[in-house]
Design brief:
Elements lengths: L1 H13 L2 H22 L11 E6 L2 H5 L1 H9 L9 E6 L2 H9 L5 E6 L2 E6 L4 H26 L7 H5 L18 H15 L1 H9 L7 H7 L5 H30 L8 H24 L5 H17 L8 H8 L1 H6 L1 H14 L4 H27 L6
Parallel strand pairs: 1-2, 1-3
Antiparallel strand pairs: 3-4
Amino acid sequence: MFLNLYGKQLLRSLRDRTFLIWLLMFPILLSTLFFFTFSTLDETDNLKTIAMGVVDDADYQAETAFSQTLTAVSSDASESLFEINYCNDLDAADALLKDGKIYGYYYVQDGTPRLVVARTGMYESIAKSFLDQYIQTKGSIETILRENPGAAADIQTLMDYKSYITEISPSKNAPTDKVNYFYALLAMMCMFGSTLGLEVVCDLQANLSSQGARRTLSPVRRGKMVAADFLAVITVQAAVIGILLIYIQFVLGIDFGQQILPVILTGIVGSITGVSFGAVLAASNRMKVTVKSAILVCVTMVCSFFAGLMVNGINYTMMQKAPVLAWLNPAARITDAFYCLYYYDNYDRYLLNMGILLAMAAVMLGVATLFLRRQQHESI
């Protein structure tokens, strides 16, 4: 009997056109849109050659050390720090700066190189740091030669820069910003499983539908009926998340890392949490089905927003400003679980997220079951 109830609910969910549109086609279209929108997101953080101006007048030509240094950092076509635009005077350099063709320009006054920029930013800061380092190094060399003229042979040692820092990656996967949007999308779709939980509970309530009235009068034990229905919709929701994962990783080419099984497990646990949320909302009040559905959608979108679906990094801001709300946001916990699998080399934080999600699901299913058991319909 249990398998029969499970199979019937499974077929019913798969035949629902609304389900196919919003829980299957919609996320596929949205993930495709994300792919084209965020395909170049990681490239925006890469440093590029900085367009700078130089006032090439008599003062600049007299400062041979500075001109040679600028030439040295601008001569390599593939790894140049600057792209130099030479100007005859200050007015020409100001015109380039005003038109946005350069980030700033250098000029020499009284034997000292100076920098002019129109605004503050990363590239302007790099140009200033370069100039500060040049002036500091030049001053050190002049001081050494003035105090010890015989140390000219050791000057090259001052010019040799050594780095004692080794750059390592915190994980085996390359850092990227775009995967966070796909994690939040998966979390949203897990939460959209609440509509299936809502539908299951409404079909068990005699005062909400004729089907609920017939099932209430059924001789089948209510506990067996509830278990079969919930298992069926969780199976369907987990299958949808699995299809979405396959599409995102193998069709769109978004790498979720090498830990495939934990990724699938996260989708299953997220689906259980979403279905449980819909069940507890449906069972805990006597509002109309349309009102309950509207509440579910609104809550899901709010949770997804604070999980980083619309604004990247807002979930971490919430963790700093309102940690309690962040930990209680199921969409944020699902997103963070995916994030942990991608970046972390251990499962500590991942297991914490999984534990919180399972605890949420257990509490919500328990509360929903309690409400369903207390409902009686002596007169329909």
